[in-house]
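An instance follows:
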Amino acid sequence: MARNRFAALALGLIALSGCVTPIGPVQVTRFHVADISPLGKGTISVEPAAGSDGNSIEWQTYRAAVMRQLEGLGYTAASPGAGAQIAHLKVTRTTIQPSGGSGPVSVGVGGSTGTYGSGVGLGIGLNLSPGPKEQVATELAVSIKDRASGTVLWEGRASFVVTTASPLAGTALGAPKMSEALFLNFPGQSGETIEVK
Protein backbone atom coordinates (compact mmCIF):
# COMPACT_ATOMS: atom_id res chain seq x y z
CA MET A 1 0.00 0.00 0.00
CA ALA A 2 2.79 2.39 0.97
CA ARG A 3 4.65 1.42 -2.19
CA ASN A 4 1.61 2.32 -4.34
CA ARG A 5 1.31 5.67 -2.58
CA PHE A 6 5.00 6.37 -3.17
CA ALA A 7 4.69 5.44 -6.87
CA ALA A 8 1.68 7.74 -7.26
CA LEU A 9 3.57 10.58 -5.58
CA ALA A 10 6.61 10.04 -7.82
CA LEU A 11 4.44 10.05 -10.94
CA GLY A 12 2.74 13.25 -9.76
CA LEU A 13 6.08 14.98 -9.23
CA ILE A 14 7.28 13.91 -12.66
CA ALA A 15 4.10 15.27 -14.24
CA LEU A 16 4.48 18.54 -12.37
CA SER A 17 8.12 18.93 -13.36
CA GLY A 18 7.09 18.57 -17.00
CA CYS A 19 4.67 21.49 -16.61
CA VAL A 20 7.17 23.89 -15.09
CA THR A 21 8.80 26.09 -17.69
CA PRO A 22 12.26 27.36 -16.81
CA ILE A 23 12.52 31.12 -16.51
CA GLY A 24 15.64 32.66 -17.96
CA PRO A 25 17.28 35.64 -16.33
CA VAL A 26 16.45 39.19 -17.39
CA GLN A 27 19.45 41.02 -18.86
CA VAL A 28 19.51 44.64 -17.65
CA THR A 29 21.77 47.52 -18.74
CA ARG A 30 21.48 51.07 -17.36
CA PHE A 31 23.19 54.40 -18.03
CA HIS A 32 22.83 57.66 -16.13
CA VAL A 33 24.31 61.13 -15.79
CA ALA A 34 26.97 61.84 -13.17
CA ASP A 35 24.60 63.95 -11.06
CA ILE A 36 21.78 61.58 -10.12
CA SER A 37 20.16 63.94 -7.59
CA PRO A 38 17.17 64.76 -9.88
CA LEU A 39 16.26 61.06 -10.17
CA GLY A 40 13.55 59.43 -8.08
CA LYS A 41 11.72 62.62 -7.13
CA GLY A 42 9.18 65.05 -8.53
CA THR A 43 6.53 64.41 -11.15
CA ILE A 44 6.92 62.12 -14.14
CA SER A 45 4.75 60.93 -17.01
CA VAL A 46 5.24 57.72 -18.96
CA GLU A 47 4.87 58.38 -22.68
CA PRO A 48 5.46 56.37 -25.86
CA ALA A 49 8.97 56.45 -27.30
CA ALA A 50 9.33 57.16 -31.02
CA GLY A 51 7.86 54.30 -33.06
CA SER A 52 5.70 52.99 -30.19
CA ASP A 53 1.93 52.60 -30.29
CA GLY A 54 0.83 54.12 -26.99
CA ASN A 55 -2.74 52.97 -27.58
CA SER A 56 -1.97 49.23 -27.76
CA ILE A 57 -3.02 47.04 -24.84
CA GLU A 58 0.51 45.64 -24.61
CA TRP A 59 2.08 49.12 -24.33
CA GLN A 60 -0.52 50.21 -21.76
CA THR A 61 0.22 47.11 -19.65
CA TYR A 62 3.94 47.89 -19.66
CA ARG A 63 3.19 51.55 -18.95
CA ALA A 64 1.23 50.61 -15.82
CA ALA A 65 4.02 48.27 -14.63
CA VAL A 66 6.71 50.92 -15.21
CA MET A 67 4.66 53.60 -13.45
CA ARG A 68 4.25 51.34 -10.40
CA GLN A 69 8.03 51.00 -10.21
CA LEU A 70 8.59 54.75 -10.65
CA GLU A 71 6.10 55.57 -7.90
CA GLY A 72 7.87 53.07 -5.65
CA LEU A 73 11.11 54.99 -6.27
CA GLY A 74 9.58 58.28 -5.10
CA TYR A 75 8.11 59.79 -8.27
CA THR A 76 4.58 61.17 -8.48
CA ALA A 77 2.59 60.18 -11.56
CA ALA A 78 1.66 62.97 -13.98
CA SER A 79 -0.60 62.90 -17.01
CA PRO A 80 0.97 62.81 -20.51
CA GLY A 81 2.39 66.18 -21.48
CA ALA A 82 2.78 67.21 -17.85
CA GLY A 83 5.40 66.35 -15.25
CA ALA A 84 8.90 67.68 -14.71
CA GLN A 85 10.35 64.48 -16.17
CA ILE A 86 9.30 62.15 -18.99
CA ALA A 87 9.83 58.40 -19.12
CA HIS A 88 9.81 57.40 -22.79
CA LEU A 89 8.81 53.74 -23.03
CA LYS A 90 9.30 51.26 -25.87
CA VAL A 91 8.50 47.53 -25.95
CA THR A 92 9.80 45.25 -28.69
CA ARG A 93 8.76 41.60 -29.05
CA THR A 94 10.22 39.17 -31.58
CA THR A 95 9.35 35.52 -32.23
CA ILE A 96 12.34 33.23 -32.75
CA GLN A 97 12.35 29.71 -34.15
CA PRO A 98 15.65 28.11 -33.06
CA SER A 99 17.28 25.84 -35.60
CA GLY A 100 17.36 22.18 -34.71
CA GLY A 101 20.45 20.03 -34.28
CA SER A 102 20.75 16.84 -36.30
CA GLY A 103 18.14 15.79 -38.81
CA PRO A 104 15.30 13.44 -38.02
CA VAL A 105 16.87 10.42 -39.78
CA SER A 106 20.41 9.06 -39.44
CA VAL A 107 22.00 6.10 -41.20
CA GLY A 108 24.87 4.07 -39.77
CA VAL A 109 27.00 1.36 -41.40
CA GLY A 110 28.89 -1.15 -39.26
CA GLY A 111 31.11 -4.11 -40.01
CA SER A 112 32.53 -6.98 -37.98
CA THR A 113 35.09 -9.68 -38.63
CA GLY A 114 36.17 -12.57 -36.49
CA THR A 115 36.70 -16.29 -36.10
CA TYR A 116 32.99 -17.03 -36.33
CA GLY A 117 32.34 -15.21 -39.56
CA SER A 118 32.09 -11.77 -40.95
CA GLY A 119 29.29 -9.46 -41.76
CA VAL A 120 28.23 -5.94 -42.54
CA GLY A 121 25.26 -4.31 -40.88
CA LEU A 122 23.19 -1.30 -41.86
CA GLY A 123 21.19 0.60 -39.26
CA ILE A 124 18.67 3.39 -39.62
CA GLY A 125 18.00 5.58 -36.62
CA LEU A 126 15.04 7.86 -36.18
CA ASN A 127 15.37 10.96 -34.00
CA LEU A 128 11.98 11.16 -32.32
CA SER A 129 12.88 13.97 -29.93
CA PRO A 130 10.92 17.18 -30.56
CA GLY A 131 12.70 20.11 -32.15
CA PRO A 132 13.54 23.25 -30.21
CA LYS A 133 10.48 25.21 -29.10
CA GLU A 134 9.55 28.57 -30.55
CA GLN A 135 10.74 31.45 -28.36
CA VAL A 136 9.73 35.03 -27.68
CA ALA A 137 12.38 37.73 -27.16
CA THR A 138 11.12 40.84 -25.35
CA GLU A 139 12.98 44.11 -24.80
CA LEU A 140 11.76 46.92 -22.55
CA ALA A 141 13.53 50.26 -23.01
CA VAL A 142 12.92 53.33 -20.83
CA SER A 143 14.59 56.73 -21.12
CA ILE A 144 14.02 59.35 -18.41
CA LYS A 145 14.46 62.96 -19.55
CA ASP A 146 14.18 66.36 -17.98
CA ARG A 147 11.18 67.89 -19.77
CA ALA A 148 12.44 71.49 -19.76
CA SER A 149 15.95 70.87 -21.07
CA GLY A 150 15.45 67.56 -22.91
CA THR A 151 18.52 66.16 -21.12
CA VAL A 152 18.55 62.38 -20.76
CA LEU A 153 19.06 61.67 -17.07
CA TRP A 154 18.77 57.87 -17.13
CA GLU A 155 18.11 55.12 -19.62
CA GLY A 156 17.83 51.40 -19.28
CA ARG A 157 17.05 48.26 -21.25
CA ALA A 158 15.77 44.93 -19.97
CA SER A 159 15.47 41.86 -22.17
CA PHE A 160 14.74 38.18 -21.86
CA VAL A 161 13.99 35.18 -24.05
CA VAL A 162 11.47 32.51 -23.05
CA THR A 163 9.63 29.77 -24.90
CA THR A 164 6.16 30.59 -26.15
CA ALA A 165 4.87 28.04 -23.60
CA SER A 166 6.25 30.07 -20.68
CA PRO A 167 3.74 32.11 -18.67
CA LEU A 168 6.20 35.02 -19.02
CA ALA A 169 5.74 35.01 -22.78
CA GLY A 170 2.46 36.80 -22.10
CA THR A 171 2.39 40.52 -21.35
CA ALA A 172 0.41 40.20 -18.10
CA LEU A 173 3.26 38.41 -16.28
CA GLY A 174 6.18 39.60 -18.40
CA ALA A 175 5.56 43.33 -17.90
CA PRO A 176 5.81 43.34 -14.07
CA LYS A 177 8.86 41.03 -14.06
CA MET A 178 10.77 43.08 -16.63
CA SER A 179 9.85 46.41 -15.02
CA GLU A 180 10.93 45.19 -11.61
CA ALA A 181 14.25 43.94 -13.02
CA LEU A 182 14.85 47.18 -14.92
CA PHE A 183 14.47 49.39 -11.86
CA LEU A 184 16.13 47.06 -9.34
CA ASN A 185 18.61 49.06 -7.21
CA PHE A 186 17.78 52.19 -9.23
CA PRO A 187 19.60 54.01 -10.76
CA GLY A 188 22.13 51.17 -10.94
CA GLN A 189 25.77 51.17 -11.96
CA SER A 190 26.08 53.20 -15.18
CA GLY A 191 27.21 51.06 -18.11
CA GLU A 192 26.95 47.77 -16.23
CA THR A 193 24.95 44.81 -17.50
CA ILE A 194 23.43 42.57 -14.84
CA GLU A 195 21.30 39.44 -14.79
CA VAL A 196 18.17 39.47 -12.63
CA LYS A 197 16.57 36.09 -11.93
